[in-house]
Design a protein that fits this description.
The protein is of the alpha+beta class. 25% of the residues lie in helices and 26% in strands. InterPro entries: DUF4216 (IPR025312).
Length: 239
């Protein structure tokens, strides 16, 4: 009742303010004016790394993406998506909003929701929310998966477990080791002198001169030995 009165009061406040010359944002005036009566229904919707699907679509696919949860300071509301709707507001801005129509479980702690000793959340699938408030904005929902317990006895027990689904491309956890790479790349300092001004060989290096002389002597001895061996071969042939 309060919500309906607020909607009527807000619409009256904006319309009366416009007639008095008060200025409001264009998108706000279009939002207060109300959406079109025609809406578009979609089988699936992707947002914030989640892929939401209608529960009826799981009959033809193997994945289960219809579980949602809306977390509030007081309670957590768990439900199942029954329809995905796109609402459009006429006007210059052409606002569009995607909402999820859900069937909610009873959020009462102890009757509809429990937390086990090992910190596992379980819900009673046979209890539903008695208040009719099925619609939420898609950006408010987080994705969960409902898993039944593998029971041998008490197969009809309505309590099922809830598993939180992480969004795609996001890994949650704690890192105890610091990364090896630097947090930022530093630019190398510019050299003050060019390569032509830097001496590549020290002219006063005496060890280098000794090595060159020794290499020349070894090379001359080698050529001398080869010449002597050549002369001996020639003399043997002449004999």
């Amino acid at each position: 009742m309060k919500l309906e009165l607020f909607v009527k009061w807000l619409k009256y406040y904006v319309q009366s303010g416009v007639t008095r010359g008060q200025r409001f944002p264009t998108w706000f005036e279009e939002l207060v004016g109300g959406p079109l009566l025609h809406v578009v229904s979609a089988p699936m919707y992707c947002i914030r790394g989640y892929v939401f699907c209608r529960k009826a679509r799981t009959r033809i696919i193997k994945t289960v993406n219809y579980g949602v949860v809306v977390k509030t300071p007081g309670l957590d509301y768990y439900g199942e998506i029954t329809d995905i709707l796109e609402v459009e507001y006429p006007g210059l801005v052409n606002l569009k909003c995607t909402i999820l129509k859900c069937d909610w479980y009873d959020p009462t702690y102890g009757q509809g929701i429990k937390v086990t000793r090992i910190r596992v959340t379980i819900i009673n699938s046979s209890r539903r929310l008695d208040k009719y408030d099925p619609f939420i904005v898609a950006s408010q929902a987080d994705q969960v998966c409902y898993l039944p317990f593998p029971r041998i006895a008490n197969v009809n027990d309505p309590w099922i477990s809830v598993t939180q689904i992480n969004p795609r491309s996001r890994v949650e956890g704690t890192s105890y080791e610091e990364p090896l790479q630097q947090p930022f790349a530093s630019m190398p300092n510019q050299t003050q002198a060019s390569s032509s001004q830097v001496p590549l060989v020290n002219a006063e290096n005496l060890q280098l001169k000794d090595l060159e002389v020794a290499a020349d002597e070894e090379g001359s001895d080698e050529f001398a030995k080869t010449s002597e061996s050549g002369d001996s071969d020639c003399s043997s042939d002449s004999e």
